[in-house]
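Why does residue order matter? Because the sequence determines the fold. Keep that principle in mind as you read this record.
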Amino acid sequence: MQTLADGLKENKVLTDFFFTHNDLQAGGDGGLGVLKSLANKKDLRSLALNSCNVNGEYLQELENSIAQNTELKELYLFANRIGPDGSKQISAIIKNKAKLTTLGLSNNKLNDTGCIELAQNGLVGKRFLIKLSFENNGMGNTALEAVSASLMDCTSIQELYLYNNELDDDPIENFCELLSKQVDIYSLGLEMNRIGYKGIDLILKALVNAPKLEKLFLNNNEINVQAAETLYEFISKTKSLKELRISNNSLEDLAGLKLAEGIIENDQLRVCHVGSNKLSSDAAEKFAEALSKTHNLKDLDLSNNLFIMDEL
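Structure:
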């Protein structure tokens, strides 16, 4: 009986291989065979092995098989428990991938050590990255600064996702410089970190001239009322913005008022989530004005704030 590995080995024209949610370590050597069969696939452009338990000797086998491939553009390795030790194999895999446009490494517990290893030995020279996903990896600011520094020559990023890491306000200068160079950035995800008003001030100033930015996700951070003016400046001037999510922060009325004023001046916003903050009825009145004056706002979330019904 011919195995999947046999078929892959015999195929000479494969360009895309997606094998997500299959445990390569589940019984026998079949998983290793699948990885070995990717050797000499010189035309392979896209490879997705999300949730496949690609770690340890399996990650080493993947390195052995595709390290010499120079055509790979998309690599997805979400949720493989790679850990900081496996980052050396990831660096070796992507080091010569000058054409890489998409790198998905979310949910791998890389931590600062692994992210810095990738920055220093894998990401340098990647000038054509379009999408980068590093969610849920325990990445702190030191690692973020290292990753940002390694990508300073890249100006093509469209999507960048850093959800659920250990990011706060300092240091963040390299990251903001990198953001300021991304003329095509479309979506930025920073949810579930510890970014406060100082960090968001620098980030929004770096993004205010981004002509294509449509989605900004800031839920579950530590942004407070001191970000009020920055939020207003950003929302009112960033005419491309269509979706802003900033729930589960510590915004009070002044920030809510400024946010609503920004929405009135920027009639392009379609989605605005400001739930689970500290807004009262004064802010609700300004949002009511925004609802009546704007023509595109279709999704407004003000849940779980401090509104008094008799004052609405």
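The first strand starts at residue 16 and ends at 18.
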